[in-house]
Design a protein that fits this description.
By secondary structure, the protein is mainly α. The chain has 16 helices and no strands. It has one domain.
Length: 380
């Protein structure tokens, strides 16, 4: 029986590794490796469903993600969007959330052990390659993404998972501090200030000594996010008259007052959204975005989802987010509070970027199941 359990966990770990390689790593310089991992992820998803379906073990969060992509698929067909983009996101997202759920059913501790090993490997490998190729390994791309802004979300996921591992005694505070230092150094070298601030915000929270101060930090960041998202991103208010806002944008974020032309991208996104507010335009590839925005995304996750599927798809994303927040809030613990803050940091960063949906759902799933992971700490 022991051998069978080990084999089960090993196969799930390998399946997660294959899928996450497709999500987190830029493998274009090695086509054979890219196609190999793309091929292996299909087997990983098939394996996951072969376990889940006979025993009806999908998990509530997996079902919500599955419905999100069913709706996205129907909208994509309706608008003649990119089937390849939809299929890739669906395989990766559903595969990751289902495999994490299946692994957690067997051993929550082993789930974190697997994830921390995978993300530590990604982050350390990326750091070494960044030191060797500070301008990118190919056309400004790095191991953790097609550009310097793609590195941040993987680092945030890695730091969050490493904190879980630290609390479960799978890692120690030195390894957590080292990973945090490497994360800040990596983003500083490539020049992504949004990612630098995100990593620093997470590290500062980790070392805040009291729950009261952590709660203040969470609420402060949330209020700041709402103000910025509403008045700057949505309404694009004039902030040039505010010295504080000007200082934060130009000196802290190191961007100009139009946020490196993001204002113009958001204006165009508003126009597109008003033309098709209910169902958007279906999931589209980077070439479609470049033909409209001259960049590969809407540089804001809310606008990105509105373009993908209008208010219908955005409602499903918010529902999946609220599911995680409500469950974590109803089962308070160190991990649940930490993940609520992590999600706030992640969405704060996504005011400027549109990160991979797979990583969004991964963090939201960890938040949703934070009560189960907390039990492992309580039983230690």
């Amino acid at each position: 029986m022991l051998k069978r359990i080990d084999t089960y966990n090993l196969l799930i770990s390998l399946a997660l590794f294959f899928i996450l390689c497709n999500v987190a790593l830029f493998l274009d310089p090695i086509p054979v490796l890219r196609w190999s991992f793309s091929f292996l992820r299909l087997f990983a998803v098939i394996y996951a469903f072969s376990i889940a379906i006979p025993k009806l073990r999908l998990g509530k969060y997996t079902v919500v993600v599955l419905f999100f992509y069913i709706i996205a698929g129907l909208i994509t067909i309706m608008h003649n969007g990119s089937a390849h983009t939809w299929l890739s996101y669906t395989i990766n997202s559903v595969g990751v959330v289902l495999l994490i759920y299946l692994s957690m059913l067997s051993s929550p501790r082993n789930t974190i052990r697997t994830l921390v090993t995978i993300f530590d490997f990604y982050i350390y490998s990326n750091f070494i390659l960044t030191l060797i190729y500070p301008e990118g390994i190919l056309d400004g791309a790095y191991l953790l993404g097609v550009n310097y802004n793609s590195i941040g979300p993987v680092l945030i996921c890695g730091l969050a998972i490493h904190y879980f591992a630290y609390k479960m005694h799978l890692r120690n505070w030195l390894t957590l501090l080292l990973l945090g230092g490497i994360s800040v150094a990596s983003t500083t070298i490539v020049g992504s200030m949004t990612s630098v601030i995100g990593c620093l915000l997470l590290l500062v929270y980790i070392f805040i000594p009291t729950h009261r101060l952590r709660k203040i930090a969470l609420m402060s960041l949330f209020v700041f996010y709402l103000i910025f998202q509403t008045f700057i991103v949505f309404y694009q208010g004039d902030i040039s008259t505010s010295e504080t806002a000007t200082y934060f944008i130009e000196d802290v974020l190191q961007k100009n007052l139009n946020f490196t032309n993001r204002i113009y991208i958001w204006e165009k996104s508003q126009i597109l959204t008003k033309e098709s507010p209910i169902t958007g335009y279906g999931m589209q590839d980077s070439e479609w975005f470049e033909s409209i925005f001259w960049v590969k995304s809407a540089h804001n996750i809310i606008y990105q989802i509105l373009i993908y599927g209008g208010s219908v798809l955005l409602t499903f994303l918010f529902f999946s987010l609220l599911m995680s927040i409500i469950r974590a809030y109803r089962h308070p613990s160190i991990l649940s509070h930490f993940m609520l803050y992590t999600l706030c940091v992640f969405y704060f960063m996504m005011m400027m970027e549109a990160y991979n949906l797979v990583l969004i759902f991964l963090l939201q799933e960890l938040t949703y199941y934070s009560p189960e992971f907390s039990k492992v700490i309580d039983e230690q």
